[in-house]
Amino acid sequence: MISASRSQPVKRSRWDNLLEGSVVGSFTSLGYTVRSQAWDDVDTSSLAGKTALITGATSGIGRRVATELALSGARLRFVARNPRKAEDLKRELRDLSAGGDIDYYLADLSEIANVRRVADEILFAEPTIHLLINNAVVLPATRMVTPEGLEMAHATNLVAPFVLTNSLIPRLVESQPARIINVISGGMYAQGLALDDLNYKRGTYRGSVAYARAKRGLMVLTKMWGADLADSGVVVHATHPGWVDTPGVATSIPTFHRVMGPWLRSTEQGADTILWLATADLPGTTTGKLWHDRAERPEYRLGVGTETATDREKLWSLLEESVASVPTPTCC
Ligand SMILES: NC(=O)c1ccc[n+]([C@@H]2O[C@H](COP(=O)([O-])OP(=O)(O)OC[C@H]3O[C@@H](n4cnc5c(N)ncnc54)[C@H](OP(=O)(O)O)[C@@H]3O)[C@@H](O)[C@H]2O)c1
């Protein structure tokens, strides 16, 4: 049995503690290089034959994680929106893993109807799910609204994992022990939930703010799922991968990418803690926490973005309302 409140203390080196005081030191390749001195390689062999599902596998960190999952012998399933990229990735990973059990589902996760549909397809086709990684992300340059009326970053980065995870939880519980990993971002340290404006209708729109609010929301959901699933055999983790050189960063925040270029992490480094959370013993015994570089990290810095229990409940009910506003298609 796993208790949400019973999180084991993680022993950290003096260097790690020093790095934690500096966002730049902690999130760059410097932080990874210093901390990883004490680590063994992640052992993914426990995933062989297990079903692992990941979103956002066609690029960046997700692509690296998917590659390692394929090599581990897991039954790899990924959700992608672009059929050509999905087929290319499937072929590449099958070749790499010498014919591994790899397949994909197609869905644009910015639309609730698609997320529901793909969740139904997954539930129909997959008798087990042992690992769910919510990794897909968008950081829009300008405010965009989905056909369902939601702001794009909110829809893709928060509503989609809310719907997908809630739909798949029963299958994860049946498959226990199972793990859910939500890839969030240190960007959330600068933002709270913005419960009165989840769709960012007010003020000057900034994609990085919309992104960070959604990631804050996903952190809050991680805690809520962690508590709800405490005795179910399913653990839930959030992780910040650090600042990683990915196509998404290069396109969405080009100035940051240029300035930080030499200090950005490789995708291998960005994938490390996700794979560790998926496989190591310690994260199998704790739930509802934030991890970075294989250690539990604080959810807030300088008291920014804190929320109350009432805020958490409010977020959940607002997300439920959004989902309920999209009609479920009547069949046939
Ligand atoms: N890179 C960093 O420095 C950094 C820092 C902090 C946190 N993170 C987190 O790490 C994760 C991966 O980031 P990344 O930099 O690797 O991202 P990325 O290179 O931009 O890749 C994003 C992935 O999400 C998919 N995606 C986007 N919108 C989608 C939609 N509507 N439906 C389905 N799939 C969609 C993309 O598909 P397409 O290939 O079709 O575009 C792609 O596979 C994210 O959760 C991000 O917040 C990254």
CATH homology superfamily name: NAD(P)-binding Rossmann-like Domain
State the end-to-end CA separation: 43 Å
Number of domains: 1
Poorly predicted segments: 1-9
The oligomeric state of the chains shown is single chain
Mean pLDDT: 94
Textual characterization of the structure:
The protein is globular. Helices cover 45% and strands 11% of the residues. Strands 3-2-1-4-5-6-7-8 form an eight-stranded mixed sheet, with helices on both faces. The chain has helices at residues 14-20, 23-27, 29-36, 60-72, 83-96, 112-125, 152-174, 207-228, 247-252, 254-260, 267-279, 309-324; strands at residues 51-55, 75-80, 102-106, 131-134, 178-183, 234-239, 289-292, 295-296. The chain has 332 residues and is an alpha/beta fold. Bound molecules: NADP nicotinamide-adenine-dinucleotide phosphate. NADP nicotinamide-adenine-dinucleotide phosphate binds at residues 56, 58-62, 81-82, 85, 108-110, 135-138, 156, 183, 185, 240-241, 243-244, 246-249.
Concise summary:
By secondary structure, the protein is α/β, with parallel strands linked by helices. 45% of the residues lie in helices and 11% in strands.
Tag the structure with descriptive keywords.
eight-stranded mixed β-sheet; single chain; globular; 45% helix; 8 strands; 332 residues; 11% strand; Rossmann fold; binds NADP nicotinamide-adenine-dinucleotide phosphate; disordered N terminus; alpha/beta; 12 helices
